[in-house]
Design brief:
There is one protein chain. By secondary structure, the protein is an all-alpha fold. The chain is built from 16 helices and no strands. The longest helix is centred in the C-terminal third of the chain and has 27 residues. The radius of gyration is 20 Å and the shape is globular. 36% of the residues are buried.
Length: 362
């Protein structure tokens, strides 16, 4: 297995650090003039995603890309990505630039359309999304899905036109990754009317649902979402996850990533659904969706046959949560618990970079 070099590590860390330094003023204030703007967001996000040497899938994708070019093997990616491989000039980095660069641009358009302070979203993206954004190609499908939902919820067009655009967006998203059907269904659930009893009931029912997750997993694994290639990839995630949680440092790594996200979601749910803080339905949808994804991540955590689903769902939480927080944190006072959660996420990023340096380069 090919691993990154010191200079590659330094390049990626330097990009993230530059992004963070340019946007960190949004940690404690909502000044719209300080931070990373639209163009800089696209530039830094694309560079980080194209040259994502530290992600586990970077070299795996390169190997699959070379197999498609040299031997015509096309049994892992969806047809769209193989079509891109053959129509673009032969260059792995160019292929990544088109796939992940498109995802970054659509994410930027989403933030610009949903938040009164784009620079706040840039900071949240750097902190929560960017570290895992280049890992999986399904992020392109996810941002297409989110953008189509946002057009439906935010556009001033007539209802019939918005429905047509939503359906077209869902069809496009579905073609971009075999897991998209599951996310589409979850988003449909998130759009249903919700009150505090939904959250109370889901928490009380968690221990009972958790027992039946292995059965649910077997149904997932029979689906096209998890064919043989996907299961082999998933097993890799499972092995990595098990190796991470096998020691104190692995437990610390998982905790400092997951606890702040749990606290931010719980904090928002408490104020909106229990304290009746008024937030528009179109933003509550993304909070509900983030909660369901986190709930699914917890359901699959430490399960014997489906651990890798937990990390997939956990990573998927981040982008929709930043869409919600990009608005929510501009209309409320950032309490101490919110700031502590954000600082903890900074620590989580620095810990990951330090851990990768220690594990692979020392």
């Amino acid at each position: 297995m090919e691993v990154f070099t010191f200079w590659q590590w330094l390049f990626v860390f330097g990009l993230w650090l530059l992004f963070f330094i340019r946007s960190k003023s949004q940690m404690t204030c909502i000044n719209k003039t300080n931070g990373v703007g639209f163009g800089e967001f696209i530039l830094l996000g694309c560079c980080y995603s194209v040259f994502a040497f530290l992600t586990g899938d970077f070299f795996n994708y390169e190997e699959l890309y070379n197999l498609a070019i040299l031997h015509g093997e096309e049994n892992h990616f969806e047809p769209f990505y193989y079509w891109l491989i053959h129509v673009l000039p032969t260059n792995y980095y160019l292929w990544r630039a088109v796939v992940w660069g498109s995802a970054v641009i659509i994410a930027a358009l989403i933030y610009r359309k949903t938040s009164p302070n784009f620079r706040q979203c840039s900071f949240l993206f750097c902190l929560m999304v960017l570290p895992t954004f280049p890992n999986l190609r399904n992020n392109l499908g996810l941002v297409v899905l989110y953008y189509s939902v946002i057009i439906f919820l935010f556009s001033q067009r007539n209802f019939k036109t918005r429905i047509i655009l939503l359906v077209l967006g869902i069809i496009c998203a579905y073609q971009l990754h075999k897991s998209m059907f599951m996310y589409i269904v979850i988003f449909g659930i998130a759009m249903l009317p919700t009150n505090k009893y939904f959250f109370i009931g889901s928490i009380l029912g968690f221990p009972f649902i958790y027992k039946y997750v292995p059965l649910l997993s077997s149904l997932f694994l029979k689906d096209s979402f998890a064919n043989e290639a996907s299961m082999a990839s998933g097993q890799g995630y499972l092995d990595a996850a098990l190796s991470q949680i096998a020691n104190f440092y692995g437990i610390l790594q998982v905790s400092i990533w997951r606890l702040p996200v749990l606290i931010l979601i719980a904090y928002a749910i408490y104020h909106i659904y229990f304290k009746k803080y008024i937030i528009s339905y179109r933003f509550r949808v993304f909070l509900n969706y983030s909660y369901i994804l986190l709930y699914m991540a917890c359901l699959f955590y430490a399960q014997p046959v489906s651990e890798f689903f937990s990390s997939r769902f956990q990573d998927a939480v981040m982008l929709p949560l930043t869409i919600f927080l990009g608005y929510y944190l501009t209309v409320i006072h950032k309490s101490k618990i919110v700031k502590i959660s954000l600082y903890t996420l900074v620590l989580a990023n620095l810990y990951d970079f330090s851990y990768s340096f220690y594990k692979y380069l020392l």
